[in-house]
Amino acid sequence: MGQTNPLEQFEIRRLIDLKIGGIDASFTNSSLFMVLIIVLTTVFVLYAMRKRAMVPGRFQLMAELTYEFIAGMVRDNVGKEGMPYFPFVFTLFMFILFANLLGMVPYSFTVTSHIIVTFALAIVVCVGVTVIGFMRHGLKFLGLFAPAGVPLVLLIILVPIEIISYVVRPCSLSIRLFANMMAGHTLMKVFASFVISLGLLAGWVPILLISALNGLEVGIAMLQAYVFVILTCLYLNDGVHMHH
User: Fold this and answer.
1) In whole angstroms, what is the distance from residue 76 CA to residue 6 CA?
2) pLDDT value for 126
3) What are the tens digits of pLDDT across the range 234-243?
4) How many domains does the chain have?
5) Is residue 1 part of a domain?
6) Domain residues for 149?
7) Residue 3: inside a domain
8) Residue 129 located in a structural domain
9) Where residue 205 falls among pLDDT bands split at 50, 70, 90?
10) 228 neighbors 173 (Cβ within 8 angstroms)
11) pLDDT mean over 45-72
12) Helix, strand, or coil (residue 152)
């Protein structure tokens, strides 16, 4: 690696300086890896489904299982009314999953370790759910913040709490993903520095820890993609059904 500071791996570097109307729109290493993630995801799906065989191969089986897994998640949490939003949920899952897994490759860049990226994804989800809620229910959607059957006195306390909890959804959704990815990669970098400082004779202990952490990080990468999408489905259920 050659880096002594474990946080240097998260540094954003400009690759192409670009300003539009005084706004810094430079193409960075983060931008490059986001483009790469989109390309890899598209290539994987197209390659996996190119033959559409009755007896699927490994890649087709992986693609079909992922498709059915996300479709089942949407149906279970939102119902049939949520299936029109399945393409968005599937795309969101694949982007986060590939971003997390690509970040495990040495010398790569983990875009989901930056809160600006995870917050952008989260704000799109939450704003989208709000728009869907008002489009389907009109002003009745505001009833989500005032559950039926609650005494008026309690509503004075409950409504502000519900509004605050709704508004902070993008923060909680984005921080969860960002913090898990950043913490895991930082920890692996710290143990990697121990290998260099201790040498080969004593460095086998941190090497074993790094190997175990790598396996754990792969699991966390998949789990965090799942958690982000399952919460998206739960929020989408609020917009579609106003269930609380």
Assistant:
1) 41
2) 95
3) 999 999 987 6
4) 1
5) no
6) 8-241
7) no
8) yes
9) low
10) yes
11) 88
12) helix
Average pLDDT of every residue of the chain = 86
DSSP states of 130-148: HHHHHHHHGGGGGGGGS-T
Which band of pLDDT confidence, cut at 50, 70 and 90, is reported for residue 2?
very low
Distance of CA 136 to the CA centre of its chain: 26
Residues 173/125, Cβ–Cβ less than 8 Å: yes
Q: Across residues 24-43, what is the average pLDDT?
A: 92
Give domain status of residue 2, yes or no.
no
For the segment 110-121, what is each residue's pLDDT rounded down to a tens digit? Answer: 899 999 999 999
How many other C-beta atoms are found inside a 10 Å radius of the C-beta of residue 204?
Answer: 12
- The gap from C-alpha 139 to its chain's centroid, in whole angstroms, comes to 30
Kindly tell me the sign of the dihedral angle through the C-alpha atoms of 166, 169, 171, 172: positive
Q: Write down the residue that tokens 């902070």 correspond to.
A: 168
Give one word for 18, left, alpha or beta, with left for phi > 0 and alpha for psi -120 to 50.
beta
| Concatenated DSSP letters of 27-89 | EEHHHHHHHHHHHHHHHHHHHHTSS--SS--HHHHHHHHHHHHHHHHHHHHH-GGGGGGHHHH
